[in-house]
Specification:
It is built from 21 helices and no strands. By secondary structure, it is mostly helical.
């Protein structure tokens, strides 16, 4: 019995050490809830704190832990719970001065949704709906009210590419809240004035202004970017892209073509096309450090001809490391840094591996692999496929639709058989659709052009020059 108790306490201690942010965040929340209600009872506070911890674990932790990006980076957890906690603290303070119309679900829920997606947004809605109702004596009416407002917020902000879309979403939520507040004032509370209705209308509007204003700061601090922020990074005048275009113009052109492929494929399988396009722009920025070692930038001789294959392997790996360093220096999104790391996965640098085997047959494949890891999400998997395919198709002489399709299928099958896509989340159906989209884009890019008949050249310049000479003679 004592051993069971000891084991249970040890498990509880491990859980507390691993999920400490749950307990700390809810201490702040319960403190400000008590402040807003101007009521404090030790026993009731402990019970309500326990309810909050269980609530945030069930509604948030169990849901967001299934989201792939949360598994990749602890920053997602930290940012998620920071917004959750600060949002609830602000709601508690606002309730102290304005009553229930001062509670804003739109501000924290919209920020979480645009930064982390629909699943995280819905999880936060459940938390805010029930925890905010706690301030209002556990009223089911207010819980449902906040639930409706929060779900509409998630629905309207789950796929936005412009800041004005946040303002439009706020206006729609304002209309819903005005209607609900009007119903509340008419049927549940004696009508003394309509101040609550006006506050209910302006609450989401003001919240949207705050959300638009603080979003860039959250993005820069956390390196978790919304589609709006990623789209702004995709501006080709970004310092890193300008550096790439000047130092490694061949790589720059390759990245632009790759972006078209990746975006089309991402749209086809319904993942984030903006992340795919902008990730493709930045995936090879490390090549700006040593551009002459990559064939697309070479004009005269190949430096690898004078290097040992082992050194060539190190140089190729360096562009991944250098790209990650530049991504951190310029505060690029974490997911774009992941794409830089993962777009080669753990594939073997076959050319240098076979070259090394010519002199040393005992060389192992592991000695010529990229550092990885393998692609961890669908957009990274798409860019890995597009990167290999774009380079392979450029090597085709007289590209025809059948040749392009054959090459695309061969390259994708090779990567799939190497098990590089095992951790990306791409299904066989996704891969089939990606192949179709790649072929469609490449065929339209490399289609054969009609040879127009040429007329016999006319010596127009000589005629003009002769006319000028005769005119000058006439003037003399």
């Amino acid at each position: 019995m004592f051993n069971n108790i000891k084991k249970a306490l040890e498990d509880l201690g491990k859980f507390f050490a691993k999920k400490w942010y749950l307990f700390v965040s809810q201490i702040l929340v319960i403190f400000f809830i008590k402040y807003s209600r101007a009521f404090f009872n030790v026993e009731r506070t402990i019970i309500e704190y326990s309810i909050l911890v269980v609530l945030v674990y069930i509604t948030c932790e169990l849901n967001v832990s299934k989201v792939r990006f949360f598994k990749l980076h602890k920053n997602y957890y930290f940012t998620f719970y920071s917004i959750l906690t600060v949002g609830m603290v602000l709601n508690s303070l606002s309730y102290s001065y304005f009553g229930y119309p001062g509670i804003s679900v739109f501000l924290p829920v919209s920020l979480i949704t645009v930064l982390m997606g629909t699943t995280a947004g819905i999880a936060s809605v459940y938390y805010f709906a029930f925890s905010s109702a706690m301030m209002l004596n556990y009223s089911l009416k207010y819980s449902l009210f906040f639930l409706f407002s929060g779900i509409l917020t998630v629905f309207l902000t789950r796929r936005i590419n412009k800041r004005i879309d946040i303002a439009r979403a706020a206006l729609m939520v304002s209309l819903l809240q005005t209607f609900l507040f009007f119903i509340n004032e008419i049927f549940f509370i004696p009508v003394s004035n309509y101040r609550n209705i006006l506050e209910g209308f302006f609450n989401p509007v003001i919240s949207s202004i705050i959300a638009i204003g603080i979003l860039p700061y959250i993005e820069y601090a956390s390196r978790i970017y919304s589609s709006i922020g990623i789209l702004e990074l995709g501006n080709l005048s970004h310092p890193l892209l300008k550096l790439l275009s000047m130092k490694a113009p061949g790589t720059y052109y390759h990245s632009v073509v790759l972006a078209n492929l990746a975006e089309a494929a991402a749209e086809r399988i319904e993942v984030n096309p903006i992340l795919a396009r902008v990730g493709a722009y930045f995936h090879d920025i490390g090549k700006a450090k040593k551009p002459e070692f990559f064939i697309e930038n070479q004009q005269l001789e190949n430096p690898h001809s004078f290097l040992h294959p082992g050194l060539s392997h190190i140089v190729l790996n360096f562009h991944v490391k250098a790209g990650c360093e530049l991504a951190r220096k310029y505060r690029l999104p974490l997911l774009i840094e992941d794409i830089i790391k993962q777009h080669h996965g753990t594939r073997v640098q076959k050319f240098f591996y076979h070259k090394a085997r010519e002199t040393n047959p005992e060389v192992k494949e592991e000695d010529f692999k990229y550092p990885g890891p393998k692609p961890q999400f669908k957009e990274a998997g798409i860019i890995m496929l597009a990167d290999s395919i774009e380079a392979a198709v450029r090597s085709i002489k007289d590209p025809t639709p059948s040749k392009i399709e054959e090459m695309v299928t061969e390259v994708v099958n090779d990567i799939y058989n190497e098990r590089e896509l095992d951790e990306s989340g791409l299904t066989l159906k996704d891969i089939e659709l990606i192949i179709e989209e790649f072929v469609k884009v490449l065929v339209s890019t490399y289609h054969q052009r009609i040879e127009y008949p040429q007329d016999s050249p006319k010596n127009v310049l000589l005629q003009i020059k002769g006319g000028e000479d005769s005119e000058s003679e006439h003037n003399k």
